[in-house]
Amino acid sequence: MNGFELSKSCERSLPCCTDGGLLLSAKAPQVSGVRVQLEMQALWQQFDQLGTEMIVTKSGRRMFPTFQVRISGMDPSAEYVLLMDFIPVDDKRYSSSWLVAGRADVAAPSRMHFHPDSPAPGAQWMKQTVSFDTLKLTNNLLDDNGHMILNSMHRYQPRFHVVFVDPTPNSHLNAYKNFCSFFFPETRFMAVTAYQNHRITQLKIASNPFAKGFRNTDSNSWEGNATP
Amino acid sequence: MNGFELSKSCERSLPCCTDGGLLLSAKAPQVSGVRVQLEMQALWQQFDQLGTEMIVTKSGRRMFPTFQVRISGMDPSAEYVLLMDFIPVDDKRYSSSWLVAGRADVAAPSRMHFHPDSPAPGAQWMKQTVSFDTLKLTNNLLDDNGHMILNSMHRYQPRFHVVFVDPTPNSHLNAYKNFCSFFFPETRFMAVTAYQNHRITQLKIASNPFAKGFRNTDSNSWEGNATP
DNA sequence: CTCTTGACACCTAGGTGCGAACTT
DNA sequence: AAGTTCGCACCTAGGTGTCAAGAG
User: Fold this and answer.
1) What's the whole-number average pLDDT of chain A?
2) Over chain B, what is the mean pLDDT?
3) Structural domain of residue B145, as residue ranges?
4) Considering the domain boundaries, does residue B62 fall inside one?
5) B219 CA vs D11 C1’ separation (Å)
6) How many domains does the structure of chain B reveal?
7) In this structure, is residue B46 part of a structural domain?
8) Of A146-155, A181-190, B12-21, B96-105, where does mean pLDDT reach its minimum?
9) pLDDT value, residue B10
10) Primary place of residence (chains A, B) (predicted)?
């Protein structure tokens, strides 16, 4: 039971560093020890149990909950770039009843979202929570605002990447050594243009401060539901 | 009179690079060619003609107009830090009628305000206007929010500094070569806790979008002022 | 029929000067 | 009297789900 404090986040984050048969030691020391912990995990799990949905709009919509992580194990003085992308969970297309409705549409242009503070030294990334609150989701294939393009009615798994900026000449030859990827199963979601599950809507309203206007302030709303 | 296209901004910005008898050539090439142009100059001059006043509060107040500059002549790939400070225009203390009321108070702790994007390569600084809109002024000597501490009823001259981040070992030995300072006379102002000149108040209300609530929207207020 | 769009009311978050109350 | 402080109404700017209308 000892010495597991750090590896706990590994259990949760399932690092993709185990690239096929490659040993972890094949990674550069600047990334091999990096540990990532998801923030607001309880909330993410609450959504996940209902089947998380994220709204996509033409102009771009934020994620809620926001993807936020705490990072440890970086080289404090080394420079890192942090970024996210979204991979389709399966190649299926869903109908409103969550039945598979067909094969996935043609793959949308897959974009990367660089954290706006990138690049920055490890010390800066580790000293506080790293938040991707400026990331927006869109269903507009022609988007030119740098938002993440997703297909509505498809499921996605957010991925998080830590890239060590290697100052060594010809470092691109060893590029595969210099990054590490993480994903958290509880952050999977369905992209939608309108909520399909009313319980998701209610949980969003209850937990997102910007939706406070839709909260039922009547603690006794269960009584006296007058009907015409 | 030729070759003055660049030095035009120098006329306006009065670089402090001419450090006493030192030649400009004593500066590092990364800063010797830097040119800075004040944005919203016409508005600054309009305020300056009335005697600009800036509110200082305990919690910190933004400047209006905001100090913004356009920069050219940097080495695009060199790293720079940009910062501001405020120097007392004179050692006098003013009363509400702008009469000198005594010697200046003990010098407040002089702070530097680093532009939050610092450090960044020259190319990034030059590609768009650099804005110091997060800078706030306070009269709280014990401020721990990193705001600029000023004495009310004193006049100040904002200064703008461009610092080349020299990667050379022992570069601190040549530190004086690696920066260049600019100031714009029309940005001088009096720090106040409440406006003294009503014409300044009116110009602020007319030009600051956040003060729109105090504008006289009735272009025809002279007619039909119904009273009960 | 299912899914998408856009105007909308309602929030958060925070920048204005006002004016009464307060301090000196 | 002169200068400062603080709550306030009124803005900007932008993030919510809702609902009616539109598109296929």
Assistant:
1) 82
2) 82
3) 30-214
4) yes
5) 19
6) 1
7) yes
8) B12-21
9) 36
10) nucleus
Instruction: Provide the token pair at A43.
Output: 């909330």
Question: Comparing A76-85, A153-162, B21-30, which segment has the lowest mean pLDDT?
Answer: B21-30
Nearest nucleotide by C1' position to the A203 CA atom: D17
pLDDT of A54 over the 90 cut: yes
What CATH number corresponds to the domain at position B122? 2.60.40.820
Query: Residue A24: is its pLDDT beyond 60?
Result: no
Residue with nearest Cα to nucleotide C2 C1': A96
Task: Say if B171 falls within a structural domain.
Answer: yes
Residue B50 CA to D7 C1' — how many Å? Answer: 30
Domain membership of residue A22 (yes or no) is no
| Model pTM score | 0.79
Which phi and psi angles does B57 have, rounded to 5°?
A: -135, 170
